[in-house]
Amino acid sequence: MSGDFSGKRVLLTGGSRGIGRATVLEFAKRGANVAFTYASSAESAEAVRVEAETYGVTAMAIQSDVSDFEAAKALVASVKEAFGGIDVLVNNAGIVRDKLILQMTESDWDEVMQTNLKGVFNITKHVAGVMVKQRKGRIVNIGSISGVAGFVGQTNYSASKAALGGFTKALSNELGRRNVTCVTLALGVVETDMTSGLPVEYLAKMVERVALRRPASTAEIARIIVNFASEEMEYVNGQVVLVDGGTGI
Ligand code: NAP
What we know:
Elements: E1 9-12, H1 18-29, E2 33-38, H2 42-53, E3 59-63, H3 69-83, E4 88-91, H4 106-134, E5 137-144, H5 146-149, H6 155-175, E6 180-187, H7 193-196, H8 200-208, H9 218-228, E7 239-243
Parallel strand pairs: 1-2, 1-4, 2-3, 4-5, 5-6, 6-7
NADP nicotinamide-adenine-dinucleotide phosphate binds next to helix 1, strand 2, helix 4, strand 5 and helix 7.
């Protein structure tokens, strides 16, 4: 059945809040067993795990910092052992440290790169080994239109998200012959903790650029992510796809 993930094994980073949380629940609703990570929100992660299991699947919430290479290795090994394999990886964990370049500190730059870019390498490197052996797998990276348009105050974040485009192309070229595919979804404005911290006028201006004149909800983005993770979409490979309600970028 189209959109059915019964028996599929999913690993998603950053599932305790926002887009990741909604995506864990959407996968679970469609029958997938889901392992997801979080950085520090243990209580919310446990609540997501419990809610996901109401759909009759197995859900695992694991504290694991994506920026830690050894932790990523251990995480992937434990998920592989628990599920027997990994069919879908969603690299969702991400942070912002917005500042104009003149104010941006070295740690603002490093933290964003370590999480948003190195984190994707850390997890994908280990999951790729599992998927290549299976001769099957789907990787969905969560990018941003900031990586395409380049927003003021986000030189670090825009650079980290733009880099996912090159990563996705190279990875799909390497792994395609093993039937492992990869796509990056460049999201527009989505209502989460990440955007609730933005100045109201700035957010209003961003939404004004959207043809639909509204931000996306986490639930609708989750449906799109899960659809892109499905086998039906595997020929969309090595691309950055804009999911932004129509910004004309
Ligand atoms: P969010 O609400 O701030 O949630 C971020 C999630 O990532 C949380 O689960 C957080 O865990 C986890 N996380 C952060 N750093 C981590 C680390 N080092 N290791 C493991 N997990 C970590 O963010 P969101 O808005 O849902 O964003 C999700 C993704 O979408 C990000 O990649 C973001 O860049 C991208 N995106 C968002 C928007 C938007 O408008 N919201 C637009 C474009 C792209 P804790 O709860 O433990 O902190």
